[in-house]
Write a structure and sequence with these properties.
The chain is of the alpha+beta class. The chain is built from nine helices and ten strands. It is about 45% helix and about 20% strand. The longest helix has 27 residues.
Amino acid sequence: MLLGLCKIWRNRIDLLPMRQKYAALLILSNSLLLLLLFAYPSWSQNAVQKRSDPFFDCTQAKNDVQRIICNDPTFIYEDQSLERDYRRLMDSLSDPTKQRVQREQSDWLKQRENGCAGGPDKIVGECVHEMHRKKSNDLYTAYVQAVCPNPDRPIMNTCQQIKPEDLPEGVGNLLQDAPPESGGWEYSTDLNGDGTPEYLACTRYFPHGPCGAVLIGQVRSKWRVLMDRAVQGYAAGCDNFFIIMESRTNGYHDICFPQEEKPIWKFNNGKYQPMERAKRGQ
């Protein structure tokens, strides 16, 4: 059970941009360590800390950059995280686009090794970390563009974050255990053009990690939850984790949650439902 929970949270963390990954991973690792210390005292006394290798053979490290990555757990995690982000992006692409992304990845690896090498370890490490940060953002942006094509920019510009206390009373009554101090992960935008906004709001709040968010809208003058289930909600919602598409289904804009296994949701039978995923270009 513990391993299953860790896998679920690790998968969620890997969807985040790198800056947010660090904070979430630190919380997860510290919580897991405390649990193990209390639950398995004998293990905690005899355990030997093990570290995964980056996605190259550290016994064959051939330059300053690879040596520094292999000697620092933080850089190892960054390297592994970037590799997973890259694989996730590749899985979302059609074959012609894959070839271009492969070339870009190869060029970036060469740039990292050549551009950061040759100085003191501290300077090399700072260069590597900055390149990792930028590459993480680039990979996530490319992934969002791949799984959420053709966003409706005019509608996206109307999407705005609001405070929980500013939600209409009918919306607030549908939220179960998301207190006002939950971080304000609520967003409003008009998805069907009727002049009344729909709201993406936290209906389940967790202290560590994303909240459980749902869309709420008016149907025949009554506020209702417009989704079959909650999705992962984040503070950086509009343009990152809640993307409104140009296409429409039954009068409502299709929406995309790139952090979900099935990102595209369409309005059918009175609710938004996830659609089967197709690679770009198909």
